[in-house]
Amino acid sequence: MSGKRRRLNTQRSSESSEKGGVGGAKEKGVEPQEDNGEKRPKLDEKPENLTNLGAQGALEAGSGGPTSSGAPESVVPESVAPESSTKQETEEVTIEPKPEPQALPELNKRYMVEKISPEKIENQVAVILHMEMRPQVPRVLLNDDDEGKEDEQLQLMFYVHYEQLDRRNDEWIVLEQIKLNEPVKPIAENEIIIPEELRQEGGLNNITTRSVRRQLEEHFHLQPNNSTMDATTARLEREHEERTKIKNIPRITIGAYTINSWYYSPFPKFCENHEIFMCEYCLAYTPHKSRAKSHLQTCKLRQPPGNEIYRKDNLSVYEVDGHTQKLYCQCLCLLSKLFMDHKTLYFDVDDFMFYVLCETDSKGAHIVGYFSREVESLNNLACIMIFPPFQKNGYGKLLIQLSYELSKREGYIGTPEKPLSDLGKVSYRSYWWWVLIKQFKTHVGHTVTGTFLSHETGLAVPDIISTLSTMRLGKKYKDIAEPDFDPNEWYCRLHPKILEHCLEHDYGKKPSLILDKSKVRWAPAVTRYEMERRRQKEQKKAGRRPSKSQANTPLATPTSFDGGFGGFRERGYTTDSAGTSSQASPLID
Question: Where does the record place Basic and acidic residues bias (predicted)?
Answer without folding.
Answer: 25-48, 86-99, 531-541
